[in-house]
Design goal:
heterodimer, A: alpha/beta, Rossmann fold, 33% helix, globular, B: four-stranded antiparallel sheet, 12 helices
Chain lengths: 325, 332
């Protein structure tokens, strides 16, 4: 991991208009609201949060599947937030994505070889199909499948193997940065570890940077160098994964970590949990002030009025009034 | 006497290509008030074992062998004259002395019926009470599972509830007739971590209050560690190891159990150990291996493993394992 950021996200906002009917009041979902963070070269940045917190929207905005409303996304020093057409196509050579559901993200009518070659066709890499085929075989070997698998169809593979095909496709263009959107949550436990180790290995070999999105906190801690915790479209806390795990600063992170079931009966049965009351508020009408204030045990009058800014605490950042100097 | 005694249960499904042997020679016993966790990957037969027990198998599935004794009554399908008799008997048991909590709260609840209708249904079916009394009991149940302002919520429809609240309703329905056995099939898998914590706390507190036994089907070892007294590990349609929570987590004997424990990241550990995944993928139960189902993924497989299913080795009165490595002649 180096200290030079490959990706800088600044004050990013992605909103969706969900107004129904022409005369209805405008309803906006603030899926990502004023989020800033950096990802260093060769680093894995883990993004955690519950469903509806905007972590997937953030990932998809970075890959430009969604256009941001405001803010900037600097990739290798160039702002790509508003690029279009040719520039965008160029950008996609560097930034790829691995999807959650290995059953839905592979076209069932294409062979594995065609799936892996498709990005190369689109971007016109290599002149002949034979060369692409050679590259596809090379990729399929990198992800731990056999060369003759490229002539098979996705239905012939298990979930873990399909996810490997997804990884091979993401690697086809030699990207520098990969957004992994819950790549393991659809897989069985014994298979999850295979995919995690594969991602680890290719990162080392190819010098990739990852944005790793997940809700499984123990796996995220295992794979990430740094973690960002999101809640209702806001980034609550950023810091090195070990420190965030052992000394969580934000009250939400504290509660989230305490909720993880630990696979050890002695610890699990004795552990005193902090169980959050209530549910996540709707992102259409988020609470005023700090978005977590409705469920926070330490919330004050001020939290309900003002939105806290990110403050630096040592090598970490946290968005909470408790840490204001 | 044990509350539930399943012996040599075998279930298979007929499909075009042949018959899938989903459950193969499974024996489980459960005492009153005990919480048993059944752990396994998808396709290991853990859900089908429970569906066989409840009489809820799909049309092409059939219990081909074994006996099921529940609450002193033999409820194995072969014990009944015909399917009609069997279904009739099971309808009296399900929702009454044996109830279930399913994985996906959205598909389990009927979308077009009010919560009230769904909550009083088991009460009206199994207890001799009036609708009015049933409604009062339903309100009490909703309070018990922690649903705020039940008087208002009871007249609402499932879509007006969030995921966690829906799961609470399902738990309330399961608890309605004070069941002796609750079967929970991945009750928290569809929920978020903080909501999962709420539901687990709820199940934990209900368990302390009532004397119901719980069978918890899950793939999450964290959930097992939190709630279960005893654990059964299933693989390839067979139970490969059973033991108390302590025995399974601290002294696992079967290579699969060990592998399973090794491939989950324990967030309490700080040393960045590499995860040790189990290579390969589970066996095809259309043509199940004659020997140990785990043989193709086992690092320590021997020749005999492919030829014959190992017998049960007892390590203690609660801890049993099926593996050739425990044989006295095996190289340790």
């Amino acid at each position: 991991m180096s200290n030079e950021p490959i990706l800088r996200v600044k004050n990013l906002k992605t909103y969706f208009d969900v107004t129904k009917g022409i005369f209805a009041k405008k309803q906006i979902v603030k899926a990502v609201d004023d989020v800033s963070f950096d990802v260093m070269r060769n680093e894995t940045f883990g993004l955690v949060g519950e469903s509806g917190c905007g972590k997937s929207t953030l990932g998809r905005t970075i890959v430009k599947l969604y256009d941001p409303n405001e803010g900037s996304i600097e990739f290798e020093g160039r702002d790509i937030a508003q690029i279009k057409g040719k520039d965008l196509k160029e950008y996609h050579k560097d930034v790829q994505m691995i999807f959650q559901d290995p059953y839905a993200s592979l076209n069932p009518r294409m062979t594995v070889g065609e799936i892996i070659k498709e990005p190369m066709n689109i971007h016109g890499i290599y002149d002949t199909d034979a060369e692409r085929e050679v590259r596809a075989v090379e990729l399929i070997k990198i992800v731990g499948l056999k060369p003759d698998h490229i002539r098979r169809y996705p239905f012939e593979f298990s979930g873990g193997q399909r996810q490997r095909i997804g990884v091979a496709r993401a690697l086809a263009l030699d990207p520098k940065f990969i957004v992994c959107d819950e790549p393991i949550s659809a897989l069985d436990v014994s298979i999850q570890a295979q995919v995690i180790n594969l991602l680890d290995d290719i990162q080392e070999k190819l010098g990739l940077s990852y944005l790793f999105i997940a809700h499984d906190l123990s796996m995220v801690k295992h794979i990430s160098d740094r973690i960002g915790v999101m809640y209702l479209g806001h980034m609550m806390e950023i810091g090195p994964s070990n420190e965030v795990y052992h000394r969580p600063l934000h009250p939400y992170t504290v509660a989230l970590l305490s909720a993880i079931p630990i696979p050890d009966p002695k610890i699990a049965k004795e552990k005193k949990r902090i169980v959050l009351e209530g549910e996540i508020p709707s992102p259409i009408n988020p609470p005023t002030g700090c978005v977590f204030s409705t469920r926070c045990s330490k919330a004050t009058e001020r939290c309900r009025r003002e939105t806290p800014q990110m403050v630096q605490v040592g090598n970490r950042q946290v968005s909470c009034f408790l840490y204001e100097k | 006497m044990a509350l539930l005694e399943i012996k040599n249960l075998t279930t298979s499904f007929k499909i075009e290509q042949g018959s899938v042997q989903a459950v193969r020679d499974v024996s489980i016993s459960l005492e009153q008030g005990e919480v048993l966790g059944i752990v396994g990957e998808s396709g290991s037969g853990k859900s089908q074992t429970m569906f066989s027990l409840m009489g809820l198998l799909a049309d092409n599935g059939k219990v081909t062998d074994g006996t099921i004794i529940f609450d002193g009554q033999d409820i194995s399908p072969k014990n009944f004259k015909n399917k009609h008799e069997y279904d009739k008997a099971m309808r009296k048991i399900r929702g009454n002395t044996m109830s279930m909590i399913f994985q996906d709260p959205m598909t389990f609840l009927n979308q077009v019926l009010k919560i009230e209708t769904q909550l009083i249904e088991p009460l009206m079916n199994h207890k001799k009470i009036t609708k009015k009394e049933a409604r009062l009991k339903a309100l009490e149940l909703m309070r018990k599972v922690g649903i705020p302002s039940p008087e208002k919520r009871i007249d609402q429809y499932p879509f007006e509830f969030s995921g966690g609240m829906r799961q609470r309703i399902i738990i309330a329905i399961a608890l309605a007739c004070n069941p002796k056995l609750i079967i929970a099939d991945e009750p928290t898998t569809a929920l978020d971590v903080t909501i999962q914590a709420q539901v687990l706390e709820l199940i934990d507190s209900l368990r302390e209050e009532s004397s119901s036994s719980i069978i918890m089907i899950t793939h999450d070892l964290g959930v097992v560690a939190k709630l279960c007294d005893r654990v059964a590990i299933m693989y390839g349609g067979k139970i490969v190891e059973t033991g108390t929570d302590q025995e399974i987590f601290y002294d696992p004997k079967h290579p699969y159990t060990k592998g399973l424990l090794n491939c989950v990241a324990n967030p309490e550990d700080d040393v960045e150990e590499e995860l040790h995944p189990i290579p390969g993928s589970p066996p095809d139960l259309l043509d199940p291996p004659i020997g140990c189902p785990f043989v193709d993924r086992c690092e320590r497989a021997m020749r005999i493993c492919k030829l014959k299913m190992p017998d049960v080795t007892e390590f203690s009165s609660t801890h049993q394992c099926r593996c050739w490595l425990n044989h006295e002649k095996a190289v340790k």
